[in-house]
Write a structure and sequence with these properties.
The complex is a heterodimer of chains A (65) and B (165). Chain A is an all-alpha fold and 65 residues long. Chain A is built from 3 helices and no strands. Chain A is flat. Chain B is mostly helical. In chain B, helix 2 packs across helix 6. Classes of the chains: A mainly alpha (65), B mainly alpha (165).
Chain lengths: 65, 165
């Protein structure tokens, strides 16, 4: 990943990354997980199209995921 | 107003096409708005809507406290170019808000940035969902009675209902 987390990990012994930072707010992390799972598991777009937009978005925003 | 999608004339109409996604998305947006400290959720929506619409200001909110001023600067940089959000700016945010509050604020920035731009691209009215329903005019909640530490701020900006999606 090319970016440096600006918050520490909320889970002792684990490095700071998207998941461990979100753990600072378990409620939002749960809601986000549910929404993200729905987005990827349902819908009219095929997975290659979704993944293509995700990768392009990540490239532009310098996201390491 | 009609968008280039023809029959779909509001954000709610657009999301109604995806009922399975609309519900968890509405829940997440509501949770995010509720968890943002004080007036920050409403201020973020107002500022981003103003930036896209090219008009308006934050005057209705009155004097912003130091933490709110940091949030406004962050919202502006986030919307213009997220690469410009640096460690110093995040450190200033951390001076006023707890890590959990910072997570909520960042979610609010992401949602508001995304949906404000989506409405603009779709040709829909650029509105603030927590403050108005039809125009860019912002009706701000009352300012806080005093400057308080971030951990003791209460959330005064209520998230939009599912119908506001």
């Amino acid at each position: 990943m090319s970016t440096v987390p600006h918050l520490p990990s909320a889970i002792e012994g684990q490095p700071a990354h998207f998941g461990t930072i979100l753990a600072h707010h378990p409620g939002l992390a749960t809601s986000f997980g549910s929404t993200y799972a729905t987005f990827w598991s349902q819908g009219v777009l095929d997975h290659p199209t979704k993944e293509t937009t995700r990768i392009r978005n990540a490239r532009i925003t310098d996201c390491g995921y | 107003m009609s968008s280039w999608l023809g029959a779909h004339t509001s954000e709610a109409d657009l999301l109604a096409v995806r009922t399975g996604l609309a519900e968890p998305l509405a829940q997440l947006r509501a949770d995010t708005g509720r968890e943002c400290p004080g007036r920050t959720a409403t201020i973020i929506e107002a500022r981003m809507a103003q930036m896209i619409a090219g008009e308006g200001g934050l005057e209705p909110f009155g004097e912003l406290d130091p933490g709110e001023q940091v949030v406004v600067a962050l919202a502006e940089q986030f919307m213009l170019d997220a690469h410009g959000v640096d460690g110093a700016q995040m450190a200033r945010l951390g001076e006023h808000f707890s890590p959990a509050e910072q997570i909520a604020i960042m979610f609010q920035l992401a949602f508001t940035d995304g949906f404000t731009k989506l409405r603009r691209v779709m040709g829909l009215p650029v509105t603030t969902t927590t403050t108005t329903t039809t125009t860019t005019t912002v009706v701000a909640p009352s300012p806080p009675s005093s400057s308080q530490p971030s951990s003791s701020r209460s959330s005064s900006s209520q998230p939009s209902s599912k119908g506001d999606l």
